[in-house]
Amino acid sequence: MAENLPVNSLRTAFDILETLAARDGMSISELASSTERPKSTVYDHLVTLHELGYLVERDGSYQISSDFLRMGDVARQRLEIYQSAGEELQRLANETGEHASLTVEEHGKAVIIATEEGDEAIPVNIYNGIVMKMHTAAPGKAIFAHLGEDRVSEIVETHGLVERTENTITDRDDLRAELAEIRERKYALDDEERLMGMRSVAAPVIDRGGRVRGSLAIYGPTNRIDDELFREDIPDLLMRSANIVEVLMNYD
Amino acid sequence: MAENLPVNSLRTAFDILETLAARDGMSISELASSTERPKSTVYDHLVTLHELGYLVERDGSYQISSDFLRMGDVARQRLEIYQSAGEELQRLANETGEHASLTVEEHGKAVIIATEEGDEAIPVNIYNGIVMKMHTAAPGKAIFAHLGEDRVSEIVETHGLVERTENTITDRDDLRAELAEIRERKYALDDEERLMGMRSVAAPVIDRGGRVRGSLAIYGPTNRIDDELFREDIPDLLMRSANIVEVLMNYD
DNA sequence: AAAAATTTTCCGGCATTACCGGAAATCAGA
DNA sequence: TCTGATTTCCGGTAATGCCGGAAAATTTTT
Predict the structure, then answer these.
(1) Mean pLDDT by 10 residues, chain B (252 residues)
(2) Long-range Cβ pairs for the range A48-55 (8 Å, 24+)
(3) CATH number at A72-249
């Protein structure tokens, strides 16, 4: 983090933007202390970002503008896997009644780029753009299993195998074994490895060139996702859907 | 546009980001010529943005990362009107079979921050974050009608009354009269004023303090939206929903 | 294969400007 | 109206964004 960037002011700008995204309606003084920068500097950036249209002033305080929504949406639209997965996500959510989501890897992290809520879906924090460590939940592991040995090591090197619950995989050899097993059986399981009380299942989506593009997943509370659902029914649904997405994806 | 900003490098950075959002998978050289800046400058920014995580390298070319999706989504979640309108949007889409959307004003423009597609919805370009001129379609006009004389003048001053179709309101007095009528009858109509073949209807959402927070709208093809739907049924649905959103919004 | 062409990455110097302390202006509350 | 807090503005300067050009890497052509 302490390293020098070619255009340092961008760090300041995005620091401010991220702070505003995290907590809303902050005053300049608050922003200044949160980002640990002089008020005048923060002010310069706020004025600039506002002028460019990326901030909006509402009720006397600054907020992130919908430009980010637009840019994010456009970027997402352009992902082939997103285009192809829409229908299946919806279907998975309907069939299971739980949260269904589409995840891709970016910068060594698992990013949820789309979610659909089934009728029973727990009102848990699963929203667009949320980022998770690769090793903690099923979607990340499903992708992880198909990334290639060195890329995995590289990512583990950078982000570590942080323990989230007592079930989290924190040992490299354990991870290696787990990933091999996932490759073997074609889907990944997370039994309260990221969050106590939550299980997730995921199947990778692999393109014609053999590269993993992302994964489809179902999340649900442990009490509802019994062993049969967890290890048989849901994996089957996911593998079916993943397969369909793979076919759709390779049309053009 | 030629004016000087306190932090000029941000213009460069967002120029690059917007260019990348618009056209995907551009090489550095292409980006340099598109943004009319030296390659080395573009390179500096790309490296910085990549390091910060806002760009992703895929297949040897840069793309906007899902961070924008996250930031946009978070910003949107924080809008009270968005929280309150979710259910109603869905319902409107179901009831009409057309596109239902939620629009707010930002920087004098109408921004669609949420859409739901009904069964019959035309596969038209209505997506999150899309920006329209206030005077062209129903959602913008519905908001416009409740902004206050001087704010309207200010916006018209800045953005003009650009003609999109032969039906577009391009005269200030006509606009003033139209807005008065909208206030009167409580909803706005757009009869192919923005796009030939498309009609839209919108109802404003006004908070307890009398301030307009946004509008609910239905879009559909002229041949399907006959006069009765256009002037009676859809307005009724929208006014009902807008009213519900208003109530929900003022709970806390 | 080698060479040529193109693109990407890197470097270094200079003019620019991002940064920030402090002052002025504005706002909020009593 | 006064007071305290916050926002806005200003100006000097150390830092750095910018960019030409060269090196490295990649792709295309012969």
Answers:
(1) 78 95 87 92 95 88 93 90 93 95 95 92 81 96 93 92 95 96 96 95 93 95 94 96 92 58
(2) A48/A13, A48/B5, A48/B6, A48/B7, A48/B8, A48/B10, A48/B11, A49/A13, A49/A16, A49/A17, A49/B10, A51/B3, A51/B5, A52/B5, A52/B10, A52/B11, A52/B14, A53/B106, A53/B107, A54/A17, A54/B14, A55/A17, A55/A20
(3) 3.30.450.40
Measured between CA atoms, the residue of chain B closest to residue A59 is: B211
Please report, for chain B, the start and end positions of each structural domain, with discontinuous segments joined by +.
9-65, 72-249
Closest CA to B55 of A18, A4, A107, A154: A107
Q: Which of residues 52-91 of B touch A (CB under 8 A)?
A: 52-54, 56, 63-78
Distance, CA of A58 to C1' of C19, in Å: 27
Among B52, B63, B65, the residue with its CB nearest the CB of A11 is B52
Q: What is the side-by-side strand order in the sheet with B198-206?
A: B131-133, B109-117, B99-106, B212-221, B198-206, B188-191
Is there a contact between B62 and B89 (Cβ–Cβ < 8 Å)?
no
pTM above 0.90, yes or no: yes
To the nearest whole Å, the CA of B125 is away from the closest chain A CA by: 11
Name the fold adopted by A9-65: Arc Repressor Mutant, subunit A (1.10.10)
- In angstroms, the CA of A28 and the C1' of C27 are apart by 14
